[in-house]
Amino acid sequence: MQHKISHWSAPAKLNLFLYINGRRSDGYHELQTLFQFVDIGDELAISPNLSDRITITPAIPGVALTDNIIYKATMALKAHSPLPLGADITLTKNLPMGGGLGGGSSDAATTLVALNHLWQLNLDEEQLAAIGLKLGADVPVFVRGHAAFAEGIGEQLTSIEVDENYYLIVVPDSQVNTATLFSDPELTRNTPKRPLNQLLQDEWQNDFETTVKKRHPEVAKALEWLLKYAPSRLTGSGCCVFSEFKTKSDALAVLAKAPKHMQIYLAKGLNKSPLLYDLAREHCMT
Ligand SMILES: C[C@@](CO)(OP(=O)(O)O)[C@H](O)COP(=O)(O)OP(=O)(O)OC[C@H]1O[C@@H](n2ccc(N)nc2=O)[C@H](O)[C@@H]1O
Ligand SMILES: Nc1ncnc2c1ncn2[C@@H]1O[C@H](COP(=O)(O)OP(=O)(O)O)[C@@H](O)[C@H]1O
What we know:
It is a single chain. By secondary structure, the protein is α+β, with helices and mostly antiparallel strands. It has one domain (1-286): Ribosomal Protein S5, domain 2 (2-Layer Sandwich). Helices cover 32% and strands 27% of the residues. The protein has 10 helices and 10 strands. Strands 1, 2, 3, 4, 5, 6, 7, 8, 9 and 10 form a 10-stranded mixed beta sheet that branches. A hairpin with a 5-residue loop joins strand 1 (6-23) and strand 2. The longest helix is centred in the middle third of the chain and has 16 residues, at 103-118. The structure holds 4-diphosphocytidyl-2-C-methyl-D-erythritol 2-phosphate and adenosine-5'-diphosphate. Residues 60, 63, 67-70, 97-105, 107, 138, 178, 236-237 line the site of adenosine-5'-diphosphate.
């Protein structure tokens, strides 16, 4: 095993629409959602070894090593080999945590895909997605790396091509806890299921939005600002909100008007995750 360092992308995602269709007996919710990647994300530099040890630097403030979803992903993978597999992982954490951009889930998926290659485990995409699902409902779509319509709890994926628009993504100064939000008594959780072709034609919405705006005034404020300029909504369970533009110059014109204190990203939608290009590059080099 070569101990050289390789670099891997962990892109963010947006939920272009998200509907909550019901609650299962295990407490998880049935969803219909459309995932697309964007060209902003975290980065992982990984050096594999046979030390049986995993290091992740720098530590994420407030998250113990064993709670880091990257660490959990390495443990789940190590179980598939008798070898004393180890890795030194450097994480460049660019994405806000708990923002509905899927940063943790994407970090976990990138870890699975990268270490499956670097540790020469030869698990297929199906197996990696199944391991990912145990780590979080959002992990499989990042493992597969294609924009997708998701049903079930987010694991039944149909790849899809949608317009690769430009987005302005605002990070309000607030944090939404996904589990708390899912248990909010006021949450809309009975939207009727619709076939994909109808969902694509109808106006796109997010069923979390009303409740998140009510509980987090900063989110309502950010959304109100974006809505002056373009169609805008919440992503995932929040708290980030985004607006969509057909061209980069349209997005830049609004970006220029953003108040100084606002944390805001310009990003492009991607139907194919940069992680797949990283994997292809690594295959070429070995
Ligand atoms: C709702 C979404 C939409 O993308 O929100 P974001 O996390 O992206 O904001 C995701 O499906 C979230 O996925 P993920 O963040 O991986 O959630 P998990 O760790 O699996 O679950 C966190 C908690 O949310 C609740 N949960 C999650 C997914 C789901 N379909 N139904 C649920 O009820 C459960 O209480 C669970 O304990
Ligand atoms: N590598 C990681 N990156 C981000 N968050 C992590 C990580 N490992 C564990 N977490 C925990 O998971 C929570 C949700 O993270 P994140 O995936 O960023 O949220 P979201 O899915 O809403 O975008 C964080 O608040 C943090 O406590």
